[in-house]
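S.,

Sequence below, as promised.
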Amino acid sequence: MSETIDLLKEASGLRPLIEAHADAADDALTMPKPVVEAFAKTGLFHLMVPKALGGHEADCSTIMNVFEELCHQDGSIGWSHMANASATSYCAFLPPEIAREMVGDRPGSVFAGQFAPRGSIKREGDGFRVSGEYGFGSGSSHASYLGGGGILMGEDGKPEMLPSGMPAYLCYFVPKDWVQMKNGWDTMGLRGTGSFDYEVPDQYVDAKYTFWLFEHAAQTGGPFYGLGATALAGLGHAGWGLGVAQRALDEIGKIATGGRSRMSGGAIRDQQIFQREYGERCFALKSVRGLVHEVYARMERRLHDGETLSKVDNDEMMGAVAYMTQVCEDIALWSYRFAGSQGLRNPSVIQRCFRDMMTGGLHIFVDRKSYEEHAKNVLGALG
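The prediction came back faster than expected:
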């Protein structure tokens, strides 16, 4: 891909197409084919793929801005895209020749899947014997490869440990044809994400198609991949929440401009309580946008300076993204409630923002337990 491509402009240019297919995605429970083709054509699926493999290897700020723009257009389609882009970035942790085989100069080849330790993994020859049932495979309908995860078990039936002392938590990829797709996705929100359940039948996977979640280094690409798999995924959650919340604010602003209070008959936008609470949430969203961008910019600078990130850095990132999501949930709920009956009737963009945000806010990545870990680190530094 050309380094001169304006990725945010490419994403913005898809607005008419994505908004036109938002209702169809909600009904079909997956990303419509014209949108899939557009992401492949623009190269946006490979937003986070190393340049050496034909991807963009964009910086953190650009990635979050692109995700925010696409999720502002539609929360489901944006979520599916960010899930694909994030998972596909993990090709950087595979041997270069394998990564090139899987995605090299193939902008439509993407990864998807759930990497939670729900699978069975045992050593076998130069690889592993794997199997497992997984859920929430966002973007799986159009994926070329699906991933899975699990703790490696030894012959004694106990979990193996890595030299670092961390559990041997293995992530792996298999061609989608080797996976049995199931249903299991008919939900309140994020309906169009194609987050279907799937089963990886008992099979052998060569070690070349795997990496250790807690102990991996990039084999292709620059310092950016020193963020690690968890923080790479965090970029997607950050951009998604910001985009959906901003769309909710924009939509309630439009409704308030044209709507009138049933009690007083006055314009909603002229009500002091609306102005105060709307302004408060505008500032809240700007604040958390600045927070996540600042946290990632600091990590990125340190990586470019040759430093290695620690658990403390990861804890702060997780906490920042979780707090940002908490603020975004409040914005979506407040916007939906102020919309009144206009949010009840289908189709309704503000209703979809509400449904999507309440669903995405349940993701384990943004669990507020991360506040506890960050607090321990801060309090520990105080002595």
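Strands lie at 111-117, 119-124, 127-137, 145-153, 169-175, 180-181, 196-206, 210-212.

Coffee later?
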